[in-house]
Amino acid sequence: MINKCLFPAAGYGTRFLPATKATPKEMLPVLTKPLIQYGVEEALEAGISTMAIVTGRGKRAIEDHFDISYELEHQIKGTSKEPLLDEIRSLINQCTFSYTRQTEMKGLGHAILTGETLIGKESFAVVLADDLCTPAGYTEGILSQMVAIYEKYQCSIIAIEEVSPENTDKYGIIAGHLIDNTDDIYRVTDMVEKPSPQEAPTNLAIIGRYILTPDIFDILRMTQPGKGGEIQLTDALLEQAKQRKVIAYRFKGTRFDCGSVNGFVEATNYFFKKGEK
């Protein structure tokens, strides 16, 4: 079973300045819910109720969001506004939230290693909140789909999607061979962090959903800084892939890159239209 989900949430969100100067990018709202709440809801749907969040300076709003606000609740008690808090109250009641701080921004791999104290020695999910995912007509969320695959293969699982070849330099790119044509499951043989279109082995890009086995922490400790001087999760996963321990899954659903303004607007429009129906 996957019991814990790690949320790396210490980044600066510089693509959204000045909005993110004092507001965590994970708290930017798509309609009336912040990005990180969508991620927590996806994890809970997958049967995960322990949320481990790696934060940094200026991220207190995340902790406050997943906590009771007595003054606010008193102010709106008995009014038409009170039901607007039902969803977040439900999350607070069903989930346990724990936090640790990443004091230096050294890449996604370093953020995940920072979360080791919250995870311990068990397999766990990872959600990057600025990748907002929706089943878009399918019955299960993406993390639920991945948990089912983990239960079958018992190794690290990464979510992938096809991207335009000219955009491979924005993603980690995998190579592998198809082992389940029905479910679009690949055994990963190679991974490259943000390759140029000429160097990319495929156009299958890793997105912000992972299930990782606990040996990833020891591998990350030994991983040298890679592209951009950061500790890349891709490099650590490649070490697992060399032992045939990484599965890539082309998920069923839709992903919005809410780390970019265009993707954020697309997500907002999608959920607005969905709410109208």
Task: Please describe what this structure looks like.
There is one protein chain. α5 crosses α8 (215-222). It is built from ten helices and 13 strands. The protein has helices spanning 35-45, 60-65, 70-76, 86-94, 108-114, 116-119, 142-153, 215-222, 233-241, 261-276; strands at 4-8, 29-30, 33-34, 50-55, 96-101, 124-127, 131-134, 156-162, 172-180, 185-193, 204-212, 246-250, 254-257. The chain has one domain (4-276): Alpha-Beta Complex (Spore Coat Polysaccharide Biosynthesis Protein SpsA, Chain A), CATH 3.90.550. It has 277 residues and is an alpha/beta fold. The model has no long low-confidence stretch (mean pLDDT 92). The strands form three sheets. A nine-stranded mixed β-sheet has the order 5-4-1-6-11-8-12-10-9, sandwiched between helices. It is globular, with a radius of gyration of 18 Å. Helix content is 32%, strand content 26%.
